[in-house]
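Give me the fold.
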Amino acid sequence: MTKQISIIVLILSTILPCFSQAGYGIYQFLELPASSRLAALGGSNVSLKDNDINFAFQNPALLGTESNKVISFNTAFYLADIQFGSVAYAKSIDSTSTLAIGIQYIDYGTFKNVTDFNEIIGQFTAKDYAVSAMYARQLNKLFSIGVSLKPIYSVYEQYSSFGLGVDAGISYYNPKELISAGFVFRNFGSQIKGYYSDENGQHLEPLPLNIQLGATKKFAHAPLRLSLTLHNLQQFDLSYKSTNQPKSSLTATTTGNNDSFVKTVGNTFEKAVDHAIVGVEFVPNNNFYVAVSYNRRRQAELSSDGFKSYSGFSFGGGIKLSKFHVGFGRSQFYTGNYAYQFSISTALNEFKL
């Protein structure tokens, strides 16, 4: 067990210095939450381990035998009439190994095809798809590992692209202490066929790599569960820097060493918390939950001065109705603009299939 973990850590530490830019890369739809529950938890969670198959989209090591024959459908109404969603199904191979297949998609809608002379000559669409072939294995009572292979296809009007990505993660779950943790490399890969060619051949771009670490703790004597997820650990500074402003406007000066030190500490702290997503769930039993979360980076980037906004805050809930689990999530991106997500799942075992 120790040898296996050491090999994983060695591989990840070797790859890590090669990537540094968060929010950079093609196929950004891969970063959208795969279910309403993930949306309610701030868009990402790599540590919560139960029978929710959708968490395997975030960390394949969270896939387990408790998801055997579970099928899930998710849809979301995103910004500007854009819709996205996912479908997933899992099947256990034996008592320690589980396979799953999942599909993520985003539909940007239908657009008018207009000439330079404002003549409408037809319509076109823009869509992205990703298929995830997931495998997870329980190493012992506490640790499991997982990997996901993701072929990706994208088509925008006459332009199309094909890529290949990999997720690899590890999960720790201690049922006695009611604590779990996860570490994952998401979206490691690149385009294989670009949207266009230039003088150097195919123009290829990397996928949006996201290295994440998270922990979840449930209280023994209270129906509460707390989650902390740290994202984009491959880059410390996630703040947006405009390239359209003069350098002088981007660089502030201070009049004393004390002011400079305080500002440096403050900026360092802000950069650190930009990686954090905090989620709280009220879970009185396994058939009901209410979740609320705070995504610091989303709030910092999407809030507008002079306008009251709850950007960065998300909430949702889920309940089991008969043989089905249904869920709802809502996220706010800026004033007056919301994204709504709906999920439904069931275990085919409930129907004796």
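The two ends are 36 Å apart (CA to CA).
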